[in-house]
Amino acid sequence: MAATGRPIQLFRNLNAKIAAIPMMLTAVVIFFGCSVWTIVYSFTNSKLLPRAKFVGLDQYERLWSANRWLISIENLFIYGILSLIFSLLIGFVLAALLDQKIRFEDTFRTILLYPFALSFVVTGLVWQWLLNPEYGVQAVVRSMGWESFTFDPLYTADIAIYGVLIAGLWQGTGLVMCLMLAGLRGIDEDIWKAARVDGIPMWKTYLFIVIPMMRPVFITTIVIIASGIVRVYDLVVAQTSGGPGIATEVPAKYVYDYMFQGQNLGQGFAASTMMLLSVSIVIIPWAYLEFGGKRRG
């Protein structure tokens, strides 16, 4: 009976399985296949065109001895940690405020979400203008009489990455706010009533009751933010082009420059492989703990 049941299970929803074949082939060939191809050719001396002349770990030794790559990793770490923290913090606070059933909620939500509708290129150009000391925020404040005011992060190498961070937060916080607001609206109203009856302060209700209940929302939001952090490129190019000097260099720009401008595919492949490895180190253990633990339970 079991033997006859297996073919029935195999052919169940056959049309749906056939329709999924192109997507599965695309995922295997394009994503997995290209990733393997990139890793293999990162061990070669490919320049303008790929060539199978293997040089071992030479590309990786050159990569980690390059000051430009080390600075890009440092910038990504600073941008990523601060972007993750402030996006979650600001987004959750804004969502909590909007969740109080305030007047003109739809208007405020639209205004706060609007920057997300803009491309990173537009965002970078807008904030390049706003942070320009000659006609941006600094010029406006000085025209009001505060002559000693200085605010030009994009033109100071030590803090230029924070100018990029401001633009990134301005664009992405609105989406985080909407995700958090959706999570807050999913909390049962009886929980709020019970907390008020028990005399629990509002901040404790959020910290010890609401936030733990919103764990899936936070996980989804963190994954979305992290994916944007790793591939940040166009915002930096539009806003600073990696400058001043290489003060705002990021790994994605390093890969692009070496692969398409420096005509050094081997070095670009090595850099992109390290980006893939860094993502895998974070994602694989998290996925194992998140899904493997539930399956065992």
Automatic annotation (TrEMBL):
GO terms for biological process: transmembrane transport. Residues 73-288 form the ABC transmembrane type-1 domain. PROSITE patterns: ABC_TM1, PROKAR_LIPOPROTEIN. It comes from the Bacteria. Its main location: membrane. GO terms for cellular component: plasma membrane. The chain crosses the membrane at residues 21-43, 76-98, 110-130, 159-184, 205-230, 269-289. Pfam families: BPD_transp_1. It is a multi-pass membrane protein. It is found in: Cell membrane. Gene3D superfamilies: MetI-like. PANTHER family: ABC TRANSPORTER PERMEASE PROTEIN. This is ABC transporter permease subunit. It comes from Algicella marina.
